[in-house]
Amino acid sequence: MSTQPFLLINTATVSGVVGLARRGEVLAQTLLKLTAASNTVVAAIDQVLAEATCTLDDLGGIVLVKGPGTFTGSRVGASIAKAIAYGASLSLVSVTTLEAVAWSGFLTSPEQATGGPLWALLDARRHQFYVQEFVVNDRTLLSRGAAVCIGAEAFDAIRTRGGMAACAFSSAAVPESQWPLEGEHVAWSFDAYPSCAGILAASAGGCIEDPFTLEPLYLRSTEELFDLPKVIS
User: What is the pTM of this model?
Assistant: First the structure.
């Protein structure tokens, strides 16, 4: 494992984070409220570098949460990570938001994720949710399928299978008809936004990216994001 610290960036969710980590240890981190302003990201990077007494020259690379998530937030994080990686000649690794959510939930409550599926959920707005299923195998998370964007029926599907559900949104985002009930075989964990530890753990299976070609990950088309009609060919 590299002895150099890695810069961790998540701006894809409304509650983001910037941090530095080395050998599995988080050296510094700053939480971001991206609903207020996305222009605080660069200042947060400067802050964690100063707190850990590091410079860009000391870094071993960057780990970016590339989406899905908010349209503006995902693009801001990707643009900043690409610029730093190119300018400082750093390696750039990307992980998806749902991978980071799954790992963050697992590291917070590993006992709840044992013996059943681990579900990562993200609010996609307009009564839809991004969902991906993972399984725990020897303290490693393995995907059991691609991420999907579906409606509130996701909650019924999870109840059928059971397990742990790490939700990167508050319980207020759950439709009233789908509120958790006593006796369910699901351990619901709300406000489970990507943590620095979760992002770092997910990076072991991340994608090495070219700063020139990396694009944010969207599970919806641009037309869907902006409520524009799709063009049918």
Answer: 0.91
User: What are 26-39's pLDDT values in tens digits?
Assistant: 999 999 987 655 67
Q: Which of 194, 172, 200, 196 minimizes the C-alpha distance to 74? A: 194
pLDDT bin (cut points 50, 70, 90) of residue 106 is: very high
User: CA 128 to CA 158: how far, in whole Å?
Assistant: 15
- Which domains are seen in the chain, by residue range? 6-97+195-225 (3.30.420.40), 98-189 (3.30.420.40)
